[in-house]
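pls design
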């Protein structure tokens, strides 16, 4: 590296041959060198830089278009979801109201069925009581009849002879048979 700088330094000591020469003053040559380099870069790099910027611009525009399409799709999905939500909420309200109506209807039906069952039980109870009363009355009648019959037989036995006694017994047996058929 020292050899390269030495060669530039030694070139600076050459005698100037008219208008061409090397300026070794670094402060004076830097702005000139920079302007030459910038001019060359602008002249030759302008097309490359424009192509890079155009490609970047196209990518940005493409990304913006894709974002807009995605945004529109998301908005459409959101609107469909909102419409579906509203429909589901309306159906839920309808089911809820129908459910309450159905519950009330079932409650009334249950109350009516229970009331009807209670009425039937009351009727069955009354019928059972009436049947038991009739049965008790019939049992009392039979016992009274048997006691009366035994009393009559005792009286007849003491007052009647054997032949009259057999006829009376036969007649009473016939009456008893007829009464048993009636009670059955």
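designed seq:
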């Amino acid at each position: 590296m020292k050899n390269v700088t030495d060669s530039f330094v030694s070139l600076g000591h050459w005698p100037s041959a008219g208008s061409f020469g090397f300026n070794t003053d670094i402060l004076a040559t830097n702005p000139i060198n920079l302007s030459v380099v910038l001019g060359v870069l602008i002249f030759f790099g302008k097309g490359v830089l424009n192509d890079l910027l155009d490609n970047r611009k196209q990518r940005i525009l493409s990304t913006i278009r894709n974002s807009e399409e995605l945004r529109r799709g998301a908005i459409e999905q959101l609107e469909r979801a909102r419409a579906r939500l509203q429909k589901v909420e309306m159906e839920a309200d309808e089911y809820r109201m129908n459910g309450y109506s159905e519950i009330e209807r079932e409650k009334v039906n249950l109350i009516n069925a229970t009331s009807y069952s209670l009425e039937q039980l009351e009727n069955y109870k009354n019928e059972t009581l009436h049947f038991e009363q009739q049965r008790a009355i019939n049992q009392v009648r039979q016992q009274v009849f048997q006691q009366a019959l035994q009393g009559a037989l005792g009286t007849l036995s003491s007052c009647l002879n054997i032949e009259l006694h057999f006829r009376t017994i036969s007649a009473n047996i016939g009456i008893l048979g007829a009464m048993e058929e009636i009670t059955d």
